[in-house]
Design the sequence.
């Protein structure tokens, strides 16, 4: 995980969990943290981390079989934690 993306850490079930801000990756302006800002926890067999979300509308669990390679817009982005993106899940 690239240190420049890490916004901070949280205590998640007694373990330190890094929280990243993807806006930093894409060069988007920061909106600051508000009372509706959330950390969406993402995990696989090797790691667990949070992603800052301005607003959370819903949560879905996506099986690995539904993950496809990253779209072309992300292929030039250096992000070792992005193996792909989910196919349509709703």
Sequence:
């Amino acid at each position: 995980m690239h240190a420049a993306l890490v916004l901070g850490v949280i205590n998640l079930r007694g373990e330190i969990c890094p929280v990243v801000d993807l806006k930093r990756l894409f060069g988007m302006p920061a909106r600051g943290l508000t009372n509706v800002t959330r950390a969406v926890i993402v995990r696989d067999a090797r790691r667990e981390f949070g992603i800052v979300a301005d607003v959370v509308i819903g949560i879905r669990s996506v099986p690995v079989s539904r993950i496809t390679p990253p779209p072309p817009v992300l292929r030039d982005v250096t992000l070792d934690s992005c193996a792909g993106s989910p196919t349509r899940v709703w």
